[in-house]
Amino acid sequence: RQVPSDASFHSVSFSETDHPRVLITGGLGQLGVGLAKLLRKQYGKNNVILSDIRKPPDTVFYSGPFIYSDILDYKNLREIVVNNRISWLIHYSALLSAVGEANVPLARAVNITGLHNILDIAAEHGLRLFVPSTIGAFGPSSPRNPTPDLCIQRPRTIYGVSKVHAELMGEYYHYRYGLDFRCLRYPGIISADSQPGGGTTDYAVQIFHDAIKTGRFECNLKPDTRLPMMYIEDCLRATVELEVVYKTDPVRQAIADSWPMNFDDSNASKDWGWKHEYDLPELVTTMLNHLNAEAV
Ligand code: AKB
After folding, report:
1. Which residues form the NAD-dependent epimerase/dehydratase domain (predicted)?
2. In this structure, which long-range contacts are made by residues 200-206, counting pairs with CB atoms below 8 Å and at least 24 apart in sequence?
């Protein structure tokens, strides 16, 4: 393994103008297939590769490339990254909170040693890396309602400890090696066509299935328990939005930095009753409708 020297990392990078070549680890979990679908729409079917250690259902094979990848096997990871010209890595492999407590050594291996492999492979090959964190990264001494971005984080699960570790290691690799590391803290995710597995928030998905199947649900948490949840579409959209590419042009950036951030149009409103008709959502919808109509 080549842990990157500063020089070797900075000399490797992918061209931002090309389509990214994306590898999703843990692709058969709750989020991988949905994210692959979104990214494939944007970057092309063959540019997004799902991977896992399990055998996928046929539908996954039909919808785009799938390969076996074991994040604990560094050589296997490197082979995949090199052979497939991977430029973005979305790292979803993890043992969730409840199964993690049932098998701490395995959770430590997958969630911590596995992450080290992912960080090193990303740094070694100049990949952009996304690793999700979650509400699990907080603990009983964190403020619970609301929980701010920056506060005490002393989780009491191996899953949570591994997520705090991932947040800090990502920040450190960014600072130390210039790694393009991105991270979002997910709440519990609710999805209809994919199942979570081994998490504490799984009940919020299971309850829908049981409501339809039997009309009866046995909940493993108390009735007054409150946890943050999000529908999968919002979670996946946020993840793709976070992957926006910024390639700043110093000349334009300097000009932009010297211009007003916000225009005061109150005199125009007073003088002749000026008022805009297109707010941001309206403007975006109108633009996309025009462009889509032109493209047909
Ligand atoms: C879990 O319940 O373990 C996960 C999470 C919130 O991170 N769904």
Report:
1. 22-240
2. 200/96, 200/97, 200/98, 200/136, 200/227, 201/227, 201/229, 202/98, 204/229
To the question of pTM greater than 0.95 for the whole model, the response is: no
What is the distance in A from the centroid of ligand 1 to the CA of 13? 33
Atom of ligand 1 nearest to the CA of 30: 8
In the prediction, which pLDDT does 8 show? Answer: 46
The binding-site residues of ligand 1, defined as CB within 6 angstroms of any ligand atom, are 96-97, 134-136, 159, 188, 196, 199-201
Using the predicted structure, report yes or no on whether residue 13 has a pLDDT greater than 50. no
* Cα gap 164→131, rounded to integer Å: 11
Helix axis angle, 158-177 relative to 114-125, nearest 10°? 20
> Which residues are designated catalytic?
159
Separation CA 288–CA 274 (nearest Å): 25
Q: How far apart are CA 157 and CA 155, in angstroms?
A: 6
Question: Cβ-count burial of 291 within 10 angstroms (0-12 exposed, 13-18 middle, 19+ buried)?
Answer: exposed
Beta strand pairing status for 229-231 and 48-52?
A: unpaired
**Phi and psi torsions of 186, nearest 5°:** -85, 145
The residue written with tokens 């916000």 in the block is: 262
ipTM for this prediction? 0.98
From 202, 220, 226, 229, mutation site for ligand 1 pocket: most ligand atoms within 8 A of C-beta: 202
Give the residue, out of 161, 186, 190, with the most ligand 1 atoms within 8 A of its beta carbon, to mutate for a pocket test: 186
